[in-house]
Specification:
- The structure holds two protein chains of two kinds.
- Chain A is α+β, with helices and mostly antiparallel strands.
- Helices cover 40% and strands 13% of the residues of chain A.
- In chain A, a hairpin with a 5-residue loop joins β3 and β4.
- In chain A, α2 runs antiparallel to α3 and α3 packs across α4.
- The longest helix of chain A has 12 residues.
- Chain A is elongated and about 50 Å long.
- In chain A, 41% of the residues are buried.
- The mean pLDDT of chain A is 95.
- The mean pLDDT of chain B is 97.
- Chain B has 19 helices and eleven strands.
- In chain B, the strands form three sheets. A five-stranded mixed β-sheet of chain B has the order 8-7-11-9-10.
- By secondary structure, chain B is of the alpha/beta class.
- Chain B is globular.
- Classes of the chains: A alpha+beta, B alpha/beta.
- Chains A and B meet through α2, α4, α5 and β4 of A and α7, β3, β7, β11 and α15 of B.
- The structure holds flavin mononucleotide, iron/sulfur cluster (SF4) and FE2/S2 (inorganic) cluster (FES).
- Flavin mononucleotide binds next to β4 and α18 of chain B.
């Protein structure tokens, strides 16, 4: 796996414009409010949040780096270590387990020879479990952030092991 | 045909666009409120409607609005709670993704009523695609003059923004949500002061659920009294119920409050019965936080009356034999499901989501998870059941926010109604840990 050193951290001009627009949504002096939306942009840019990335976000918001670390470590969506190209975030909460979530997780573990929290040897897939995604009607389900679609976390619902196999072959390539 | 207040047009092609939404009568409430009513008159209609908060607690919306402090020189805020993370709940996502303007229209009317000049919709971060849908709809509303400066030529101006969360159930708690919106960790605040006095940026703030705000437009169009005619008693109006688990037709259903629970489970109009022709074992009726009830107590109250989908009927019997309507997350368990395993699963959830500020919640949720895990995996001790009851009691009522209670109730209720299933796990660990093994007691199945 490529270890990103992320030393030369800077958003492209287009994203910086977005950053300024986001900051303008909050009152004067309350720019810290923009931290979550900007961390999402950063994660989509660099795939995970290294210390240099978080420091950079702190400079954009004119706050202390510790304020960014505090926030980034509190929320589960942020990867604080390098991850695979696709992070499979499988829901493990009760309603999904009533419809096969545990079997689904086991299938993915066996398929890639990894356990929850690990990345496949080819660097393509990281398996994570998450709590209820508000998609219990389509249980079992998982989410994957698609960089090619602007970082949208796409929902995949009513899954079976076979459907996951198909997605690995055709969609997450 | 049952009345639909929130979802009448939700399946119309193109309803996510301003134009189609408008063709179906959309934004009439904004016109009426801003041009013909004073803010106080809008609040008055909502009071008359009896509308109760749909996020879980069921607090009357009009009364909450009435509490909002109005000090000179301080802005006031309306914040919509679209964090939707309570296990079993997926109604807000359904509404926002399919009909974003329904929420936006409600936000404009409610903001006008409260005198908010800037309002935020806090959407859980995982729902980025919903955020995009909302942002597109908001841009349309700005372009058509329904948002921004001098809306429809009146002197009322409003800016509306969507704010993403970062993945944390606790940010659904309203003061944690406000902390999060200020760019901090989602640690709930001590109350008082309540948000109505000191909320976002220390300014008076109202936090309401998506569904609560979305209902306001209909109330303005038709009058609070008309709304109060829908439903039963103090459970006025309609409610979105997200039904999931072992049923034939999982999905989001808008019901008139008062539908019998039995009809909701078995009628083809709603859940369509238990999947695979199996028997019903238990239901968690209002999201993972509310007490679980066995089949015999969910369809009928302890006194033998039909249980209805209302705040009052579901809570009939208190926690001894009743539950709560909660968020409307309706989770159905068939005869092959293990209550111990599910209780352990829910405990793990609350332990994972505890923000860690208060020891009873931080430590207690961890202990409950650990003890339930050992019972489920065949290492339980005879005294573990009493230990769980004791820990749950010590958390309840002793924490800064209600997450502690929400963690304690599923455990307390599972033991109250399914104690013999826990005992069976402890006494027969080999049998209980066999793959697919479940404890059966025909008497509680329906
Ligand atoms: C742990 C916890 C999680 C909550 N999650 C949500 C949520 O996801 N959505 C919601 O609307 N309310 C949630 N609430 C309730 C809110 O604190 C608040 O009561 C609600 O947003 C008020 O809106 P309403 O009166 O319109 O229901 C939660 C409460 C707690 C204690
Ligand atoms: S009850 Fe739990 S979640 Fe709520 S403030 Fe205390 S520790 Fe945090
Ligand atoms: S439990 Fe998996 S989406 Fe709700």
């Amino acid at each position: 796996m490529i270890e990103h050193t992320q030393t030369d951290v800077r958003f492209p001009e287009e994203t910086l414009k977005q950053v300024r627009e986001i900051i303008s949504r909050y009152p004067e002096g309350r720019q810290k409010s923009a931290i979550l939306p900007i961390l999402h942009l950063a994660q989509n840019e660099w795939n995970w949040l290294s210390a240099p990335v978080m420091d950079y976000v702190a400079t954009l918001l004119d706050i202390q780096p510790i304020e960014v670390y505090e926030v980034a470590t509190f929320y589960t969506m942020f990867n604080l270590e390098p991850v695979g190209k696709y992070v499979l975030e499988v829901c493990r909460t009760g309603p999904c387990c009533l419809r096969g979530a545990e079997q689904l997780i086991e299938h993915i573990e066996n398929k890639f020879g990894i356990q929850v929290g690990q990345t496949s040897p080819d660097g393509m897939f990281t398996l994570k479990t998450v709590e209820c995604l508000a998609a219990c009607g389509g249980a079992p389900c998982l989410q994957v952030r698609l960089k090619r679609e602007g970082g949208i976390h796409k929902y995949y619902e009513n899954l079976t092991p076979e459907k996951v196999d198909g997605l690995v072959e055709k969609e997450w390539v | 045909m049952a009345i639909k207040i929130l979802t009448e047009h939700i399946n119309k092609p193109g309803i996510e666009t301003f134009e189609v939404y408008r063709q179906h009568g959309g934004y009439a409430a904004v016109e009426k409120a801003l041009k013909k009513m004073t803010p106080d008159e809008v609040v008055e209609e909502v009071k008359k409607s009896g509308l109760r908060g749909r996020g879980g607690a069921g607090f009357p919306a009009g009364m909450k609005w009435g509490f909002l402090a109005k000090p000179e020189g301080k802005p006031r805020y309306l914040v919509c709670n679209a964090d939707e993370s309570e296990p079993g709940t997926f109604k807000d996502r359904h509404l926002m993704a399919h009909s974003p303007h329904t929420l936006i229209e409600g936000m404009i009317v409610a903001s006008y009523a409260l005198g908010a000049k800037t309002s935020y919709i806090y959407v859980r971060g995982e729902m980025l695609y919903v955020i995009r849908i909302l942002e597109k709809a908001i841009a349309e509303a700005y372009a058509k003059g329904f948002l921004g400066k001098n809306i429809l030529g009146t002197d009322y101006s409003l800016d509306l923004y969507v704010h993403p969360g970062g993945g944390a159930y606790i940010c659904g708690e309203e003061t944690a949500l406000l902390e999060s919106l200020e760019g901090k960790r989602g640690n709930p605040r001590n109350k008082p002061p309540f948000p109505a006095v000191s909320g976002l940026y220390n300014c008076p703030t109202v936090v309401n659920n998506v569904e609560t705000i979305a209902a306001v437009s209909w109330i303005i169009n038709n009058g609070g009294e008309e709304y109060a005619k829908v439903g039963v008693g103090r459970s006025t109006g309609t409610k979105l119920i997200s039904a999931c688990g072992n049923i034939n037709k999982p999905g989001v259903y808008e019901i008139e409050l008062g539908v019998p629970v039995e009809e909701f489970i078995y009628s083809d109009e709603y859940c369509g019965g238990i999947a695979g022709g199996k028997k019903l074992k238990a239901v968690v009726a209002g999201g993972s936080s509310v007490p679980v009830l066995p089949a015999n107590l969910i369809t009928k109250t302890a006194s033998g009356e039909n249980r209805l989908m209302t705040y009052e009927s579901l809570s009939d019997g208190g926690f001894a034999t009743g539950t709560m309507l909660g968020s409307g997350g309706f989770i159905v368990f068939d005869e092959d499901q293990c209550i111990v395993r599910n209780t352990w699963n829910f405990s793990r959830f609350y332990h994972h989501e505890s923000c860690g500020q208060c020891s009873p919640c931080r430590e207690g949720t961890g202990w409950m998870e650990k003890v339930l895990h050992r019972i489920e995996y065949g290492h339980g001790h005879a005294h573990d059941i009493d230990l769980l009851v004791d820990v749950a009691r010590k958390i309840e009522g002793n924490t800064i926010c209600p997450l502690g209670d929400a963690a304690a109730w599923p455990v307390g209720s599972a033991i109250r109604h399914f104690r013999d299933e826990f005992e069976w796990h402890i006494r027969h660990p080999h049998e209980a840990t066999r793959k697919g093994a479940v404890y059966r007691k025909e008497a509680v199945l329906v």
